[in-house]
Amino acid sequence: MADLGERITRELTTRYIAVLVVLGFLAVLSFVGLTRVLYEAEGLGERINQTGRQRMQVERVAFAANRLAALGGERPDAVTKMLGETLDRLEAHHHQLMTGEPPPPVEVLDIFNGPVWNLEEGLRAFIGHGRALLARKSSITGNDPDLLAISDAATGPLLTGLEEATRRFQQYSEAKNRQLVMLQGISLALMLGMLLLSAFGVLHPMVERLRADMADRSRSAQELRESEERLWRILEESPMGVSVSRRSDGEIVFANTRFTDILGMTKQEFIGSSARGHYVDENQRRAVLAALRRDGRIDDAEVEFRRKNGKPFWSLLTIRSTDFQREPVNLAWIYDITERKAAEQQILLAAKVLETVTEGVVITDSGNQIVFVNPAFSTITEYARDEVLGRNPKFLHSGRHDSDFYATMWTQLQRTGRWSGEVWNRRKSGEFFAEWLSITLIRDYAGAISHHVAVFTDITHRKEDEERVWRQANYDALTGLPNRSLFLDRLSQAVRHSHREVKSFAVMFLDLDGFKAVNDTLGHAAGDVLLQQTAVRLSECMRASDTLARLSGDEFVVILQGIHGREDPTIVAGKILDQLGRPYLLEEGEAHVHGSIGISIFPDDSGDGAGLIKLADEAMYAVKRHGKNSFRFSGDKG
Fold first, then answer.
1. Number of neighbouring beta carbons within 10 Å of residue 197
2. What is d(CA 299, CA 321) in angstroms, rounded to the nearest whole number?
3. What is the DSSP annotation of 55-68?
4. The pLDDT value given to residue 384
5. Which residues of the chain have pLDDT under 50?
6. What is the pLDDT of residue 200?
7. What does the pLDDT look like over 387-421, one tens digit per residue?
8. Residue 624: Cβ-neighbour burial (10 angstroms; 0-12, 13-18, 19+)
């Protein structure tokens, strides 16, 4: 209401000031107009007097002139003086009439200067005749032309013209008076009109405004009542428990259905009870009250209340101090979080388990960005938790797996929801490590993927042990070449591959000539070094696709892949013999050995691996029988 009164007062004041300004402006205009009309009217009165005096002065000039003529030769100074002074006044009044302010109106000027009356010229001629009489030294007779002219003018058109000028001045003055009256009437009408307009333009809008404001207030009051009703309905239907208790004694004065349902009570049982009686822990209640007194509010405090059956439950409590029905109250909201607290305990337990397990655990979101790793992850990968959060796990890739490997993994993961297998990754230091990885998809309630959970175990040492055992089982410990077992496996693969591709390969059986002598003269240690150097020399003669193996002692075998007839084995055998023929520089001394090589070809000589070895062995012994340091194909005669 105060704002409404101030607004109405301000608008009334503004409008009245506007009206007063307009009225003042009209008053000034009226005053200026009246002043001008009065000024003109005053000037017209003076003009009328001047024309009247001119008429009298014309008559007096005529009287003085006739008096001089009547005296004859006598010229009394009094008559002469009267004539001269009257002519001067007549001339001065005429000049003032024609040049003074305001100037004569057009109607009057027409008499003085118009062709009909030409009063200006008549007056000048009349004054000239009078001046001529004054200037004459001789006596004036009755027949004097100047005297006759003065008499004729004084009794004829000059006086008539002056009378007409006076009449027209009077008419003009009367017109101005009528104009003055009209102007006064118009000003009065305008002012009265402005007063009426102000009454209509100021009071009427304000009355309408007051009526509209009263209607708005009535409508606002109705809307406020409806809003309060909606508010109570909202509080009643709220999914959270809502209650109101008096601050003076803590008595409950309102509670919605949800609040009483949480407590397992009826509204009749709950309303009127004391708020303090529903807390489980008195110390907790005191802490809530202390915080409320200190801050004036409670936000999302976890408080334990008691249901009607005596069972405690955890609640999220919010309190605001307000007024209800003109009384200070506490408005409280509670939300039952018993299940959430239990879930938090389960989550806390799960987190503790994840922190203590030795397997690395990684959790990524739907975009495969890391959101959680456990301490075992950092121990295995050497990456701290803060270094990996928000990153894609692909930064761990070792490069040992191609894109097809990961495509297959993701395909199975999308199809079945899980994948497990052996993966090589890279630690922060750059070291490769093997892990056994299991990945599981986590989906939300809508079935969309929300997270990926990966659990892995470092199996690097196990892989190294397996690799060591496998090498011991498949490689010669002295030379590092494949042993008999691995050679036979590769020979079997070569047979299958060549059968399928319809290709040929050769088996070369090599035995060192003179090796026993090196052992006998330089010792077995020197013989071992010689065998190692022989393995190096033979490897230099091989291609990457070929297989070089040591069967036993000084016996070596070779699988030559993709040969074309005897030409390729012949070239390789020649290289081998050249390499073996070079001296061996050992610590114990210089040694010389040679080689005998037997060659068999698949499938020309045999269609299985055992047959190829047997035929190549027989060809090698044939070389030894015929002088050594050479090679021989299976089936050659001689």
1. 12
2. 12
3. HHHHHHHHHHHHHH
4. 93
5. 1-2
6. 65
7. 999 999 999 998 889 989 999 999 999 999 999 99
8. middle
Which three-class secondary structure state does DSSP give residue 597? strand
- pLDDT at residue 41, rounded to an integer: 53
Q: How high is the pLDDT of residue 493?
A: 94
Alpha-carbon gap, residue 369 to 298, rounded angstroms: 37
Give the pLDDT score at 571.
94
pLDDT value for 380: 92
Whole-angstrom CA distances from 140 to 76, 134, 152, 176, 194 are 13, 10, 16, 48, 73
Residue 209 φ/ψ region, left for φ over 0, alpha for ψ in the -120 to 50 degree band, beta for the rest:
alpha
DSSP symbols for 128-149: HHHHHHHH--SPPPTT-HHHHH
Residue 340: what residue type?
R
| Long-range interactions of 42-45: CB distance < 8 A, separation 24+ | 43/100, 43/101, 43/102, 44/169, 44/172, 44/173, 44/176, 45/173
Spell out the residues 6+ positions from residue 200 whose beta carbon is closer than 8 angstroms to its own.
Answer: none
DSSP 321: E
Question: pTM for this one?
Answer: 0.42
Q: Which two tokens stand for residue 156?
A: 């004829």
What φ, ψ does residue 156 adopt, rounded to 5°?
-120, -130
256: closest CA among 246, 244, 271, 242?
A: 242
> What tokens appear for 26 in the block?
């009209």
Query: What is the β-pairing status of strands 594-602 and 630-633?
Result: parallel
Identity of the residue numbered 184: Q
pLDDT at 505: 96
The residue with tokens 């001046």 is 131
Q: Which domains does the chain have, with CATH numbers?
A: 12-192 (1.20.120.1730), 238-341 (3.30.450.20), 357-464 (3.30.450.20), 475-633 (3.30.70.270)
Nearest to 232 by CA among 222, 246, 245, 244: 244
Q: Which pLDDT tens digit goes with each residue over 418-474?
A: 999 999 999 999 999 999 999 999 988 888 888 999 999 988 888 778 878 888 889
Q: Are 526 and 592 in contact, with CB atoms under 8 Å apart?
A: no
- Tokens (6 digits) for 357: 């397990």
Residue type, position 298, single letter:
I
**DSSP assigned state of 479:** T
Strands 312-323 and 297-306: antiparallel
How far is Cα 488 from Cα 473, in angstroms, rounded to an integer? 13
Give the 3-state secondary structure of residue 122.
helix
3-state secondary structure 232-250: HHHHHHCCCEEEEEECCCC
What is the rounded distance in angstroms from the CA atom of residue 20 to the CA atom of residue 198? 9
Instruction: Tell me the C-alpha distance between 268 and 225, whole Å.
Output: 26
- DSSP states of 527-580 as a string? HHHHHHHHHHHHHHTS-TTSEEEEEETTEEEEEEES--TTHHHHHHHHHHHHHH
Within a 13 Å sphere around the CA of 67, how many CA atoms are in the beta-carbon half? 16
Euclidean distance between CA atoms 443 and 394, whole angstroms: 22
Question: Hey, what long-range contacts does 66-69 have (CB within 8 A, 24 or more apart)?
Answer: 66/147, 66/151, 68/133, 68/140, 69/140, 69/141, 69/142, 69/144, 69/147
Residue 91's pLDDT is what? 75
pLDDT in the model for residue 30: 63
CB-facing half-sphere around the CA of 404: CA atoms within 13 A: 0
| Residue 279 pLDDT | 85
pLDDT at 47: 65
Q: How far apart, in whole angstroms, are the C-alpha atoms of residue 37 and residue 180?
A: 6
